[in-house]
Amino acid sequence: MRVALALVLTAVLGCADAAAPAGPDPAAPAPSWRLVASWEGGPAWAWLTTDPFTVAAPWRVRWSGSGSGALFVDLYQADGTLVGRIGEQQADGSGATAPRTAAGTYRLELRSTLWAWSVVVEDAP
Predict the structure, then answer these.
(1) What domains are defined for the chain?
(2) Mean per-residue pLDDT over the chain, rounded
(3) 73, 84 contact by CB (below 8 A)
């Protein structure tokens, strides 16, 4: 009886494991990022609205800099509609974000206060 029960449990548990969804493949290659656009500014006060840029999905925005102030990164659709704030850095260092928006054409508004910065947009078509 114990052997039969063990066989049944093994069969049931084995089937349950086989039906579980697979996670991300750790062997899958990382995306190959392509530079779309870049900007630099500071260390004084700055307010820059970028020219429109077009990205494929997935895409990301990276920034880095230093100073005693801050950098704020806002994302706009090409028609000027605000998507939202996608980045903020208030100390020396860097950051990145992958906006949850589709491929398309966008603009960034970059505002800094006493912070030398660089911002890069990349996609991985």
Answers:
(1) 33-123 (2.60.120.380)
(2) 83
(3) no
